């Protein structure tokens, strides 16, 4: 399958029953500014571009949302438990982006999409969700060129300081994306 643009990616995910079921599960939580993001989207794209017959196993399913009013991490665990009850076989990870800027000592995020733009890698700065009429929406605040070209490079936020760039490099080593997807090029 050829993937050339955002419409192709939206169609690809919309036609994946498993991915759509996950989006419906998350939508049921009615979280503010929610998205399923990162490897959930990137891995699907790379699996297709590598013509894999089987889906690559995800370490987790990243669910993000943005709520300035309830920023206690324990609330995220409650939401994860709700998702586990709805779909117990999935590795859920729920994070409120209104607090996640603290992890990497960045300025507070304005929204979930703003947070995605500050993920470590451009190819991971992607998210999908369902709108009120259950149409899928793709967020790609840094574009989709890198993920489609199978290039891993740091986002502007993670190339701005030595400390953040070290985090990027550590992630690249731990994730070993080019070991899973041979056509992936990692830039340092």
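^ structure tokens above, recovered residues below v
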């Amino acid at each position: 399958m050829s993937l050339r643009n955002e419409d192709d990616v939206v169609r690809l995910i919309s036609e994946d029953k498993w991915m759509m079921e996950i989006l419906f599960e998350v939508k049921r939580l009615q979280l503010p500014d929610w998205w399923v993001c990162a490897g959930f989207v990137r891995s699907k794209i790379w699996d297709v571009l590598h013509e894999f017959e089987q889906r690559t196993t995800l370490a987790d399913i990243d669910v993000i949302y943005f709520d300035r009013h309830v920023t206690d991490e324990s609330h995220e665990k409650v939401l994860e438990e709700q998702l586990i009850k709805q779909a117990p076989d999935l590795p859920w990870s729920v994070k409120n982006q209104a607090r996640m800027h603290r992890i990497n000592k960045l300025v507070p995020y304005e929204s979930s999409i703003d947070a995605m733009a500050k993920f470590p890698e451009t190819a991971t700065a992607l998210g999908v969700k369902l709108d009120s009429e259950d149409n899928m929406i793709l967020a790609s605040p840094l574009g989709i060129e890198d993920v489609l070209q199978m290039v891993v490079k740091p986002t502007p936020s993670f190339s701005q300081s030595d400390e953040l760039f070290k985090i990027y490099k550590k992630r690249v080593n731990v994730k070993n994306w080019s070991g899973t997807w041979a056509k992936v090029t990692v830039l340092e």
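The mean pLDDT is 96.
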